[in-house]
Amino acid sequence: METIRVTTWMDAPMERCFKLATSIDLHLASAAQTQEKAIGSVTSGLITEGQTVQWQGRHFGQLRTHTSKIDGWRPYSYFREVMVEGSFARFEHEHHFAVMDDGTRMRDEIRFSAPHGVLGKFMEKMVLRRHLIKMLRQRNVLIKRAAESEEWRKYLERTGTVTGGREAGLVNGWDKRSVLQRG
Predict the structure, then answer these.
(1) Which pLDDT does position 31 carry in this prediction?
(2) Phi, psi of 96 (to 5 degrees)
(3) 66: domain CATH number?
(4) pLDDT digits (tens, 9 = 90+) for 99-154
(5) What is the SS3 assignment for 66?
(6) Overall domain count for the chain
(7) What is the structure's pLDDT at 117?
(8) Which of 182, 153, 122, 164 is nearest to 23 (CA)?
(9) Which residues form the domain of 91?
(10) Vertex 160 angle, CA 182 and 36, to 5°
């Protein structure tokens, strides 16, 4: 099994960074080069505890699907997604957030393993690790850019229907008014 750790510092409130990391739309924007789409379960907006998303994208010349479930959830400091169906033998992605020096530290930790024994081990080290790091860094650059500018509004101030008869201001189960702004 391989482990990838990437840390990104952002000059933005922790709650905003956390919510941007849960944005399906932001993920899709960061993965445009792989023609990634959300094709099942939650397909736009913000994903939350217990929900799944099914992704489809072109990786290594093949169309692949990957279904993740949010199985760990501590707003606004941590969430974890695990693969429930896909090409990996195992895939877990932990997202950690902490207030640091008047900003936010976002730390990603991905643990994965490939199927197919010795060939899979070779692929983990030589191909998959680099590919995942590249995708993760592209995503984090977009999260940082959005969090530190007004671009965050594009992902967090969605106009849409209020879910489940909840009070006004809730979009996809999130209170859009609670996203902290810098004074």
Answers:
(1) 93
(2) -115, 140
(3) 3.30.530.20
(4) 998 899 999 999 999 998 888 787 888 899 999 999 999 999 999 999 999 999 99
(5) strand
(6) 1
(7) 85
(8) 153
(9) 2-178
(10) 85
